[in-house]
Amino acid sequence: MITVQQLKKVYESGGESDLVLSVASLHIKEGERVAITGTSGSGKSTLLHMMSGVMEPTEGSVVVAGTELTSLRPAARDAFRLATIGYIFQDFHLLPSLTAEENVRLALPTEHLSDEQVNRAFQSVGLAHRRHAKPHELSRGQQQRVAFLRALVSEAPLILADEPTGSLDAKTARATMELLQDLCRVRGKTLVCVTHDEALAATFPRQLRMETLNDALKGGA
Ligand SMILES: Nc1ncnc2c1ncn2[C@@H]1O[C@H](COP(=O)(O)OP(=O)(O)OP(=O)(O)O)[C@@H](O)[C@H]1O
Ligand SMILES: [Mg+2]
Question: Which pLDDT tens digit goes with each residue over 30-53?
Fold first, then answer.
């Protein structure tokens, strides 16, 4: 599903360039569920941004579902992302004036979900009774579950999540992370999920750890 090779990201600021990420080779198979951990600043979000094509690498290649992202022009890359990737954010990004159901339907601009399908989707996250609620009427854990559905209802085969449980308490975080993995497993989606929580990462079949480059260099690694 994802192949990354010789990937580097250099940020330029104030005339200085800072190499923040270097990945020699990474392959994630279709249907895998992978947790990415690493200290703050190690480049986890940067890697996810390059996997989703919203950020261009400085060097190297990112192939998602057989397409080299760097070969696409911006408009084609946007269309590719919409069709291929569901993205889940730490702080949900639900639209406040829309109901839970309207937020989920938003993910399908050109398709139509039947009432029955929407109902089943909401049932699968235990929120059938709350589908007409506005985000501010839902708990934080419930809001994140709505955001999961929005990312998962489309045909997109790849789900990228950046600290999806980062703003939830420990108990809710664990239940929510397990739910996300279950939803991806049942729907056959590939999941790449960033978390700083090692215990949550340990619930994934595969874990990757990113090292902060400067630390590694200082340590002589
Ligand atoms: N737009 C930018 N310009 C310059 N440097 C940046 C920019 N975005 C991120 N960085 C730097 O790149 C490094 C990696 O950032 P990134 O956000 O990918 O880390 P992270 O592992 O996701 O951290 P966290 O766990 O805190 O979210 C950091 O040192 C950060 O300061
Ligand atoms: Mg981050």
Answer: 999 999 999 999 999 999 999 999
Beginning with the edge strand found earlier in the chain, give each strand of the sheet holding 33-38 in spatial order.
85-88, 158-162, 190-194, 33-38, 206-210
Spacing, Cα 41 to ligand 1 middle (Å): 5
Instruction: Give, in degrees to the nearest 5, the angle at Cα 179 between 175 and 180.
Output: 120
Pocket test for ligand 1, best of 16, 19, 45, 193 (most atoms within 8 A of CB): 45
What are the sequence ranges of the domains in the chain?
Answer: 2-218
Cα–Cα dist 23/174, whole Å: 29
Which pLDDT tens digit goes with each residue over 112-142?
778 888 899 999 999 999 999 999 999 999 9
- Quote the pTM value: 0.92
Of 1, 56, 49, 46, the closest CA to residue 21 belongs to 46
Class of domain 2-218: alpha beta
Tell how far the Cα of 44 is from the centroid of ligand 1, in angstroms: 8
